[in-house]
Every structure is written in C-alpha cells, then in structure tokens.
Automatic annotation (TrEMBL):
Name of the protein: GIY-YIG domain-containing protein
InterPro entries, A to Z: GIY-YIG_endonuc (IPR000305), GIY-YIG_endonuc_sf (IPR035901)
Domain of life of the source: Eukaryota
Annotated source species: Trachymyrmex cornetzi
GIY-YIG domain mapped to chain residues: 20-59
Highest classification ranks of the organism: Eukaryota, Metazoa, Ecdysozoa, Arthropoda, Hexapoda
C-alpha cells in the first residue's frame, strides 16, 4: 500500500528553494559573484536582473548573467 500512496512532499524547482548560496557568472567576462539568500532564489535572481538592466551590477559589461550552481542550506537551529 505504501508503494501506491505517496505521502512525501513534491520537490520544489531549484529557483523556488530558499536558504541557498548561489554563484552568478557574467557571460561576457570572468567576473563572478557568490551570494546567499534566505528568500526564494527566483526572487533574488529577479533583483539581480533588475540591477543589470539599471547598470548597477557586477561589472560594466554585464548584459547576460549565468546562474551556475547553488547549494541548499539547512536552517541554523539554536
């Protein structure tokens, strides 16, 4: 019966995870940025993309950002 009825949660897409460390690379040069956020990754990526359009980001040449990897962090427990 356990094989038929699944009780686990659905997996989230990578961009829906929170508490992550991520790396962003500029597609035009070798500049990279490593960040950490407690919010959903897609929210933070939207903010980075907004900064690129306003020319307030990593370097002056950035037009396209590549999001290479991220690590899901376990919440810190007291």
């Amino acid at each position: 019966l356990n094989r038929i009825i699944k009780t686990g949660k659905d997996k989230l897409n990578k961009d829906e995870l929170s508490n992550v460390v991520y790396e962003i690379n500029c597609a035009d040069c070798n500049v990279s940025y490593v960040g950490q956020t407690k919010r959903q990754l897609n929210t933070r990526i939207k903010e980075h993309n907004g900064c690129v359009q306003q020319k307030k980001h990593l370097c002056n040449c950035c037009k396209i950002l590549e999001y290479d990897w991220f690590i899901h962090l376990d919440p810190i427990r007291n």
